[in-house]
Amino acid sequence: MERKKYKSNTRAKNKWNAENYDRLYPYVRLGKKAIYQQAVEAGGFESMNDLIESATDERAAEVLGLTAEQFDEAVKAAAEERRKRGEAR
Question: Is pTM, for the whole model, over 0.70?
Answer without folding.
Answer: yes
